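Hi R.,

As promised on Friday, here is the backbone we talked about, encoded as structure tokens. Could you run it through your design pipeline when you get a chance and send me back a sequence?
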């Protein structure tokens, strides 16, 4: 529900009303916690245009559904199979929902629609929501954290036992004791929708092409393309005419995808890995993109953030109110998330490093690795489970 008069104090303040912040806010509201989500957008219709389509794992779907953040209007496209291959080699592997006894490995949805639904559910559900409120500062006090807020009527302050930062990392620089490391990949991701010449049959593709990894995600009747390039290559690809661009994509899939009949507008953005030396600070927890921003190569960024939110809500559910934000509670959350977040972050980063190696022997080794993964059932199923559920 939308709060018109901001309280001076709450037990828990959640900064950010996107899918990650909304998930933890919904879960806390159902626990009966005195929590409020703080969102800079002025209304539920005040969403920035975001062209991305994201692959959500089955476990992310379950978390969103349980929190009331999943509806048919999202028009989700199921992923029944993922085909992974390398250009110029016979190495390939396939991951299937059937092997994990699941209806789907996950679903592809438009991020813009998911973010809008998340904010609408906060506005109409049991969670408290402060719209049109921007956090301009945050600091830790002895027993509470203090937020400086810019509202439509002026600046105010609010204290909280615990502050959850799910704002994409906008406030990281203000948090004492937390250092962010940024690793530029010197790469851009090209994004575009492509209409396939034949139905995609709910198959997603991850292709390690010679000039950069690329993915095709089933998105309605189309594919969403994410193509990683150097900045110079990206600029050149964006300037191609539609037919030449579609032919370039089809060429890199070597006949696995028969071709395309149309392409939508193309966009690109720079890629970097952002990590923190600690996801907790005095009275504060950072989750989602505030805690880590990943390369899109394995489609794990939002999935990791949603697992952050679900784990944090579970930890809070066991804590008496007066212990919220205390060091023991913060350390418990950090310990529970360390293995999954560290493993997934390292996996995506190492994939980029591994497939950047042009050495012929390395290419053969990668090919053999994918063949082995495809042929060894327990190994393949274990790998698929980690992509779906995270690292336990």
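Update: got your reply. Pasting your designed sequence below so it's all in one thread:
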């Amino acid at each position: 529900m939308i709060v018109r008069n901001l309280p001076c104090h709450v037990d828990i303040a959640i900064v950010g009303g996107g899918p990650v912040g909304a998930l933890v806010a919904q879960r806390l509201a159902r626990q009966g916690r005195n929590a409020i989500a703080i969102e800079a957008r002025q209304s539920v219709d005040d969403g920035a245009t975001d062209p991305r389509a994201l692959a959500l794992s089955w476990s992310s779907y379950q978390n969103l559904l349980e929190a009331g953040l999943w509806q048919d209007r999202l028009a989700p496209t199921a992923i029944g199979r993922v085909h992974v291959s390398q250009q110029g080699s016979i190495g390939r592997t396939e991951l299937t929902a059937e092997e994990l006894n699941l209806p789907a490995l996950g679903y592809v949805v438009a991020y813009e629609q998911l973010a809008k639904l998340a904010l609408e559910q906060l506005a109409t559900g049991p969670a408290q929501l402060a719209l049109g409120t921007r956090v301009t500062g945050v600091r830790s006090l002895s027993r509470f954290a203090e937020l400086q807020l810019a509202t439509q009527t002026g600046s105010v302050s609010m204290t909280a036992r615990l502050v959850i930062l799910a704002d994409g990392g906008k406030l990281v620089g203000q948090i004492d004791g937390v250092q962010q490391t940024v690793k530029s990949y010197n790469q851009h991701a090209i994004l575009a929708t492509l209409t396939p010449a034949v139905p995609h049959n709910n198959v997603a593709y991850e292709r390690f092409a010679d000039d950069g990894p690329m993915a095709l995600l089933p998105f309605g009747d189309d594919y969403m393309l994410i193509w990683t390039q150097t900045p110079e290559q990206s600029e050149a690809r964006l300037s191609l005419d539609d037919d030449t661009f579609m032919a370039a994509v089809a060429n890199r899939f070597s006949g696995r995808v028969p071709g395309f009949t149309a392409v939508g507008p193309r966009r690109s953005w720079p890629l970097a890995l952002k990590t923190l030396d600690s996801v907790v600070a005095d009275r504060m927890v950072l989750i989602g993109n505030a805690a880590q921003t990943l390369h899109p190569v394995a489609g794990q960024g939002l999935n990791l953030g949603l697992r952050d939110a679900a784990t944090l809500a579970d930890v809070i559910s066991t804590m008496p109110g007066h212990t919220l934000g205390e060091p023991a509670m913060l350390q418990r959350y950090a310990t529970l998330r360390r293995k999954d977040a560290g493993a997934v972050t390292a996996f995506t980063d190492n994939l980029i490093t591994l497939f950047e190696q042009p050495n012929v022997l390395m290419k053969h080794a990668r090919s053999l690795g994918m063949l082995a993964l495809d042929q060894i059932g327990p190994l393949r199923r274990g790998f698929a489970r980690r992509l779906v559920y995270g690292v336990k």
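One thing I noticed while checking it: Residues 54 and 307 are 15 Å apart (CA to CA).

Thanks again,
M.
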